[in-house]
Amino acid sequence: MYNPMELSRIDRQIEDLQRLKANYQNMPQPINNIITTPTTNNQPIFEAKFTTENPSDIYVQNKTAFIDLKNGKLSIKETDGELKEYFIVLPKDEKDLKIENLERKLREMEVRMNNEYTKSNQPIIDEPKPVNNGDEHVTKPKSKGNLFKSSE
Description:
- This protein is an alpha+beta fold.
- It has two helices and four strands, in the order H-E-E-E-E-H.
C-alpha cells in the first residue's frame, strides 16, 4: 500500500547519506609517516603451539615451541629436528592451594593417629609377674569341662 509519509522519510535518509558521502570525499587524506623496512622473508621465525602430542612426531617449518600444560612441559623444536625440553612450573590457583593445604592436614592427622595407635598397642613392660620361690607349688587350675551342656 502506498504511504507518502514513508516515502518522504526514505528521501530524507537518502539526502543525509549523500551529504555524509560528500563530506568524506572532501576530507584531507591522512599523511602516512610510518617507516617500513623491506623484508626479504615474510615468514615467521618462531611459532608456539599448545599440544598434548609428542613434539618429536610433528613436522615443523620454523623454530617452534610446543607447550603442554597438562604435563607442565615446554619443548622447542628446530627445523632440523633437534628437540630441547624444559619443565615449567604452572601457577596454582586458589582451588589448587586449598586442596594442597587440606591434603597436608590430612597427612598430619594420619601420622598423629598412627602414633596414638602404636602407643596404645605396645605391651605393658611394668606388669607384675608371679614370684615362685620354690616353696610353693604352682598348679594349673583343673578344667571344669565344657561349660555348655549338650542336649544329647
